[in-house]
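User: Predict the structure for this protein chain, please.
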Amino acid sequence: MKRALLTLLLLSGCATGGYGHLPAAEQDDVHRIEAYLNGVQGLQAAFLQHGPDAGESAGRFSYIPGHLRLDYVAPHPMELVAGDGHLVLDDRATGAVTHLSLRHNPLGLLLKYPIRFDGDVQVTDVRHGDGSLQISVAQADNPSQGLLTIQFSDVNGQLGLIGLQGVDARQHHFGVELSAVQQGVAIAPSVFTPPAE
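Assistant: Here is the predicted structure, written as structure tokens:
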């Protein structure tokens, strides 16, 4: 993560998008990740989220290409729906509904469809671990708006989404760890309808 943040700072004056600067093997990894994220039929998992205030929350994670939903059960019920350029958070404990644009939010880099990590997206880092692969991306024309690191298991050439790490424009960090991941789940489109006011 520190390497990715350093890369983000170094790129802050650069408007070059894409991943053509990467070695060929890492470009192949980027293609694999694009194909995986665009081909997910439906993914659900349990999640544990670490927020900028060092607090933790947990719940159910649902994803299809272009759309994300988090149903929080702890510390209290909340519903987050993101897609089509917008994020809506309904805090059922307080009744507050928050609307945010994904244009300047790191999650927006994951929720474009189809996903292509070129053009207006800059790949800042590709990293392998033991049975894992992660990619860090930022907006090419304004990397200081945030960095998103998408984490995968990578076993026998098969990818599986296992987590997200992000830093927003105000340098607030967040992390989402997935467990009990189920892929190929049929998810009704209505699941990704933002909560009503």
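Residues 1-15 have pLDDT under 50 and may be disordered.
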